[in-house]
Specification:
Helix content: 25-40%
Strand content: 15-25%
Distance between the termini: 55 Å
Structural class: alpha/beta
CATH architecture of the largest domain: 3-Layer(aba) Sandwich
CATH class of the largest domain: Alpha Beta
Number of domains: 2
Radius of gyration: 24 Å
Strand order of the largest sheet: 2-1-3-4-6-5-11-7
CATH superfamily of the largest domain: Thiamin diphosphate (ThDP)-binding fold, Pyr/PP domains
Number of strands: 11
Length: about 350
């Protein structure tokens, strides 16, 4: 496949004439603007960009992007996106889903697009609630969440989208949140990755799950509880006064104090995006004792699904004549003779 030709666009080139219709204050507005600001920086071409979504608040996204797009059915966006990518591998595919759409009815499809490693960016908006259908508990809702479907409090153990992605074999896993200034950097890293790039985006549902992420994602005062990961950089947070180290006896991560900026003496780990085991540990860190791990957790490419399919197709057709009539006549054939008046 040829490398995509970069073109010059502005944010306005990616905005449609459609009225953006989410609840006032919804985190989806911030994510939309982050994507629309990022695409010009990537040199993306609207004529070769496709946004594909399922069902849910987040899945209105294709209406608001001045590109090609499909608003598909509940949970099946990965199947449609896979078909589009195989039909035209030159297209740049962005898949938009939510915690309900992607991890309930769509969990099976999401798992397979990740393990197959189809080259696309997958943005999962996680607001830990079913927003579009009026606030029922979703697969990621926390234990004790009171909702129309769990009036006494949810007893389900919540799914972790990033852990799901790693377990399904994803080769890129990133995290961000709606109003973060660092979200475009995560989107750029995902776009640079060749393969299925999964980004979990924590998103505030202003109506049904308001401020549930404020402990680490509030506009002000929560920075000390964020661990922004950078490849080759030490895992520091709280103004570089704390860090993440490995307890080698227990084989688990721990928080350590960093004195006088000497993170090496404190045993702080240096982030390596190719270490899958460490990525699993970062995802499983319980928030509270630990900060929220954000940024690129894992990035280790391997050959993509569509490249393997194309190679197989070329091998199967090598030296063969493309003749549909001959193909239809191949094998057992027979001729029916006679006229319409002849008895059957």
């Amino acid at each position: 496949m040829n490398a995509p030709v970069k073109i010059e666009t502005t944010l306005k080139d990616w905005e449609t004439d459609q009225e953006v219709r989410w609840c006032p204050g919804c985190g989806d507005y911030a994510i939309l603007k982050a994507v629309q600001r990022t695409l010009p920086q990537l040199g993306a071409d609207p004529a070769k960009t496709v946004f594909i979504s399922g069902i849910g608040c987040s899945s209105r996204f294709p209406y608001y992007m001045e590109s090609y797009g499909f608003h598909t059915i509940h949970g099946r966006a990965p199947a449609v996106a896979t078909g589009v990518k195989l039909a035209n591998p030159e297209l740049d595919i962005w898949l938009v889903t939510g915690d309900g759409d992607g991890l309930s009815i769509g969990g099976n499809h999401l798992m397979h697009v990740l393990r197959r490693n189809v080259n696309m960016q997958i943005m999962l908006f996680n607001n830990e609630i079913y927003g579009l259908t009026k606030g029922q508990a979703s697969p990621t809702s926390r234990e004790g969440t009171r909702s129309p479907s769990s009036p006494l409090g949810s007893v389900d153990h919540p799914a972790k989208p990033a852990a799901f992605a790693l377990g399904a074999g994803a080769r890129f896993v990133g995290r961000g949140f709606d109003v973060s200034k660092h979200l475009p950097d995560v989107l750029k890293a995902a776009h640079a990755h060749q393969g299925a790039a999964f980004i979990e985006i924590f998103q505030n549902c202003i109506v049904y799950n308001k401020d549930v992420f404020d402990d680490f994602a509030a506009p002000k005062g929560a920075e000390d509880r964020q661990l922004w990961l950078e490849d080759g950089k030490p895992m520091l947070f709280a103004g570089e006064t704390k860090g993440i180290a490995l307890d080698r006896d227990a084989l688990e991560l721990k928080v350590v104090d960093v004195a006088d900026g000497d993170w090496e003496a404190a045993g702080v780990l240096v982030h390596d995006v190719t270490k899958r085991q460490v990525a699993h540990m970062l995802v499983d860190m319980p928030f509270g004792p630990f900060p929220m791990a954000l940024g690129v957790l894992y990035d280790d490419p391997r050959p993509t699904f569509e490249s393997a399919v194309i190679a197989e197709r070329e091998q199967a057709s090598a030296g063969k004549e493309a003749n549909l009539a001959k193909l239809l006549a191949k094998g057992q054939t027979w001729t029916v003779s006679g006229t319409a008046q002849d008895p059957i």
